[in-house]
Specification:
Elements: H1 2-29, H2 31-85, H3 93-101, H4 112-151, E1 162-168, E2 174-179, H5 180-186, H6 190-201, E3 205-211, E4 214-216, H7 218-232, H8 236-259
Antiparallel strand pairs: 1-2, 1-3, 3-4
Helix pairs in contact: 2-3, 2-8, 4-5, 4-7, 4-8
């Protein structure tokens, strides 16, 4: 038993001695430094490669979200905003397109607060569509009655028959137009509209007014504007349309500004 212990001790001592000599040689020869350097370099390379790959994946995801979600939403809602700012009837088919966005897989990757805001805006736009259509019909009916009363002309339901057009004097190119119902919905006096166009173009412009397809002067148009506006301005529907439109315009502007950053990905 003693011999076995002595032999085992001798063997362990020999192994330790060999390891000590080997480590000493590695240290003295600089191999240890090389091995450590290689390990550190490999670690850094792996870290950099992982971060680069993650950035590439995130960029690819951002581009997909831009093309599939944020870009289309921005484009469609901006078109609605432009129409509402001019108090023109938006292309209501857009609301159907926006509604379909909810069924797309990528839509659910949209940032939560923006997704909630999107839901709210589409619901409000749907309600506003009903109010706008009813108000527009009300205004046209009042215009028809006023024109028939003052000019003995039945313009029917064609809004294009009551129109104020401005054109460049020599080239006869139209630079602006406004219908009577637009002027009333916008609360824009026709003479102020003409003034703004003259300031914008800084050209000699002439005004052409048609009522029921017949040429009339601006005073006729201004008079109709005043008569119809006085009749309709206290109507609850007319006031509610204006209130909701102004509120929605501000809400749309805020939302579009929030998603601009997501459509700037290159």
């Amino acid at each position: 038993m003693t011999d076995i212990r002595e032999n085992l001790g001798w063997l362990i001592g020999s192994i330790v001695t060999v390891l000590a000599l080997a480590l000493g040689w590695i240290y003295q020869s600089g191999v240890l430094n090389t091995l450590v350097g290689v390990a550190i370099g490999a670690g850094i390379a792996y870290y950099v490669q992982s971060r680069t790959q993650n950035r590439a994946w995130k960029r690819e995801d951002a581009i997909t979200m831009r093309d599939k979600v944020y870009g289309p939403i921005f484009r469609e809602m901006n078109e609605i905003l432009e129409s509402m700012e001019l108090v023109q009837s938006p292309n209501w088919e857009i609301t159907s397109k926006l509604e379909k966005m909810r069924t797309q897989y990528f839509f659910y990757n949209m940032r939560r607060d923006l997704k909630d805001k999107f839901y709210t805006l589409t619901e409000r736009l749907e309600k506003y569509q009903t109010i706008y259509s009813a108000t527009h019909t009300l205004v046209l009916r009042q215009i028809r009655e006023a024109v028939e009363k003052s000019h003995k002309i039945d313009i029917g339901v064609s809004s294009g028959q009551v129109r104020l057009g401005l054109e460049i004097l020599k080239e006869a190119i139209e630079v602006g137009s406004i219908t009577l119902e637009q002027a009333i919905l916008q609360k824009t006096r026709p003479s102020d509209f003409i003034k703004s166009k003259k300031e914008e173009w800084r050209e000699d412009l002439f005004t052409e007014v048609r009522i029921g397809g017949q040429l009339r002067d601006l005073n006729n148009f201004e008079s109709l504007y005043e008569d119809v506006l006085n009749e309709i301005k206290e109507e609850p529907l007319y006031q509610e349309e204006e209130k909701q439109r102004k509120f929605l315009v501000e809400e749309l502007k805020t939302f579009l500004n929030q998603i601009k950053a997501f459509i700037a990905v290159q």
